[in-house]
Write a structure and sequence with these properties.
The chain has helices at 28-39, 46-53, 62-74, 143-151, 169-180, 187-194, 198-211, 226-232; strands spanning 2-11, 17-26, 79-81, 89-91, 98-102, 108-111, 137-140, 185-186, 214-218, 221-224. By secondary structure, the chain is α+β, with helices and mostly antiparallel strands.
Length: 233
């Protein structure tokens, strides 16, 4: 078993820098997840990464991949990207950089800024906070989506999935999480995979059951129905 000692530079309230020693057991699962993440040119979701990891670890579950990604992110070995309330994405590049998010296909890419100047916070703007960093988020439409729109004569770039199914974004996240599992899932596992709070998942499950999109074949466990699969199509 490999033990990784990760030194994180931090700054205390007096402005002095110190090192935090973060020890993490590097299991085979975590090694493979890291290796597969580094192969991605972009910023995969846990679902996308799971598809690649499963080729090497046939018995690994999606929930296990999620948990290990959270652990690796917490240890500072990878970055977690949370943009516009969408599904979390992960990045092996720990260098400071900025992202751009496509409003149509939800793709996330790196974007280079011409100016590297930092934001200067004045003391009066802190409102009692100690500012340790900031994140700039760009939104727009990627080249592929712009090309598809031009070819269709300037039609809307809205996601075709959102057309007639009547699903809210949280409901879609819950259904997508269930669709990934071959067995009924507990609410806490759905919350982990969907990146939502457990209470929020519970509310969405109730609404989806009324629509006939979710069934509960086992007490406190849920699965997607055929109608639910159709709603995602």
């Amino acid at each position: 078993m490999i033990m990784i000692i990760n030194y994180i530079h931090a700054q205390n309230v007096d402005g002095y820098y110190y090192q935090v020693c973060n020890m993490l057991r590097m299991t085979q699962q975590r090694e493979i997840i890291l290796e597969e993440l580094k192969k991605f040119a972009g910023h995969p979701t846990a679902d996308e990464l799971f598809d690649e990891v499963k080729k090497r670890l046939s018995h690994v579950s999606l929930a296990t991949v999620y948990r290990n990604l959270e652990i690796l992110s917490g240890a500072g070995l990878i970055s977690k990207i949370e943009i516009s309330g969408r599904q979390k994405r992960f990045d092996s590049d720990l260098q400071q950089h900025t992202h751009v998010y496509c409003l149509s296909c939800h793709r996330v890419d790196n974007i280079e800024l011409q100016s590297k100047s930092s934001i200067d916070f004045k003391a009066k703007d802190h409102q009692g906070y100690r500012i340790d960093g900031y994140r700039i988020e760009f939104k727009g439409f990627c080249p592929d989506c712009l090309t598809k729109t031009d070819n269709k004569g300037g039609k809307s770039m809205g996601c075709k999935k959102c057309g007639t199914s009547g699903l809210s974004e949280p409901q879609r996240k819950v259904l997508e999480a269930l669709a990934k599992s071959k067995e009924p899932c507990a609410g806490k596992d759905i919350a982990l995979v969907a990146g939502m709070e457990a209470k929020q998942v519970s509310c969405q499950i109730t609404a989806l059951k009324k629509k006939g999109y979710v069934a509960s074949p086992i007490r406190c466990k849920y699965e997607i129905t055929r109608d639910g699969q159709k709603a995602l199509a």
